[in-house]
Each structure stands twice: as C-alpha cells, then as structure tokens.
Amino acid sequence: MHYTCPLCKTENKIDASFHTVEYVCKSCSNLIDVSKNTSTKVVKKPIENVVLEIGQQGIIDGTAYRVTGIIIRKYGFSIFGENII
C-alpha cells in the first residue's frame, strides 16, 4: 500500500499483508491515522540498537522477515545499559 503523509506529502510504502490502521511517516515522524488521514502525534524515532529500518527485510534462521514496526521497551531507570536523566 502507498500512503501520502498529509503533513509533509512524503510517499510511504507499506508492504504488509494485514490491514494498516496507523503508520509513522518515514520523513516527519508523525503518527498518521489512515482512516482520517490526519496526524495524531509526533513519534520520537528510536536510535538505540536499531539494525533494520521499517520496511527493510532481514533473515532469521533462513526465514525472511520484513520490519513493520519498532518497539523500544524501558526497564527501570535504564535503556540498554544507559542512564535515563
């Protein structure tokens, strides 16, 4: 599917076999509601330990996977061993 960000007009190609409800624009990092074609908030892009960008493909144990989202979980007062201030 191809979606055009209503704010920055960047084309976002989403190669997914499931129904897309929201996506984060690859250019301006706004969370876009697909049905309303509006921004709901700006999402801070994670930079820690991100190996593949959304849309890229990787292989794990011989099986190809496409990245459809990135989640960073916070545990206590640190992320990946770094202190949060």
Please specify the SSE layout and strand pairing.
Layout: E1 2-4, E2 11-13, E3 22-24, E4 30-33, E5 38-42, E6 57-60, E7 63-66, E8 78-79, E9 82-83
Antiparallel strand pairs: 1-2, 3-4, 4-5, 6-7, 8-9
Q: Note the overall shape.
A: globular
Strand order of the largest sheet: 3-4-5
Strand content: 35-45%
How would you classify the helix and strand content by structural class?
mainly beta
What is the CA–CA distance across the termini? 39 Å
Low-confidence stretches: none
Mind describing the biggest β-sheet?
3 strands, antiparallel
Q: Report the average pLDDT across residues.
A: 83
Query: Radius of gyration, rounded?
Result: 15 Å
Number of DSSP E strands: 9
Task: Walk me through this protein's architecture.
This protein is mainly beta and 85 residues long. The chain is built from no helices and nine strands. The strands form four sheets. Strands 3-4-5 form a three-stranded antiparallel beta sheet, with no helix packed on it. A hairpin with a 2-residue loop joins strand 8 (78-79) and strand 9 (82-83).
Précis, in short:
With 85 residues, the chain is mainly β. It has strands at residues 2-4, 11-13, 22-24, 30-33, 38-42, 57-60, 63-66, 78-79, 82-83.
Could you name the key traits of this structure?
single chain; 85 residues; mainly beta; three-stranded antiparallel sheet; two-stranded antiparallel ribbon; 0% helix; 35% strand
